[in-house]
Specification:
132 residues; 3 helices; globular; Nuclear Transport Factor 2, Chain: A; alpha+beta; 7-stranded mixed beta sheet; homodimer
């Protein structure tokens, strides 16, 4: 028996992240796959800060997002496209937000992997004018 | 006979861009698919400027890249992942650079489409230390 763990490849990280996102297990994905010094980027004009650093801040963003959601109706996540230490997926979420009604959110999500952990994520979408 | 042209969807732009990139026709992709106010983003530490704006500047970047290449040995471009007005592809290029030898470049490329044209592109890769 050994406690040695092999460093995950970009493809292994991507496939695991996709599996967890398809279950809606975003917090688990962060716990399991993200590095302590994760950097998270949102587009200008989104509700979230344009740049966050550190595992706790990024987890907190997920908690805040979850708090806005009244009901999840479905999520569609593509298979990843992979280039060495980067990969991208598309994600479409169908949610009802508290006080805002049901909407569909679509984004391309890009990730960088280093030493088997996600160290950088960027969400690419066009914020709705009402979010500005 | 009519000169009216239909605005291309994100998927149509993505599929056409992929087809042109698979042929190595980057200049044609810019001419055919890019908007005059295109914004082009490279990662910190790459050889190219981190942000360029305007069709002529972005075309010039392609010309400068081509001038560094002695021989193209192959290119692999993924199918696109698409989320509303954004899409991403992975691209792996096998080139010999003048005075630098043969190398493989891998990147995730993200694009935003507006009114049937690419208005924003971002290349995601980790520059080699020698590029810093």
């Amino acid at each position: 028996m050994t406690t040695e763990t092999k460093t995950m490849t970009t493809k292994q990280v991507a496939d695991r992240l996709v599996a967890l996102c398809r279950e809606g297990s975003f917090a688990s994905a962060i716990d399991e796959l993200y590095a302590p010094d994760i950097v998270s980027i949102e587009p200008p004009g989104s509700n979230a800060p344009e740049r966050l650093e550190g595992l706790e801040n990024v987890k907190q963003k997920t908690v805040q997002f979850d708090a806005m959601v009244e009901a999840h109706h479905g999520i569609t996540v593509s298979d990843p496209v992979i280039a060495e230490d980067h990969f991208a997926i598309s994600m479409v979420m169908d949610c009802t937000f508290k006080g805002m009604g049901r909407t569909t959110m679509s984004e391309v999500c890009v990730y960088r992997v280093k030493d088997g952990k996600v160290v950088w994520e960027q969400f690419c979408f066009s914020p709705m004018p009402s979010q500005n």
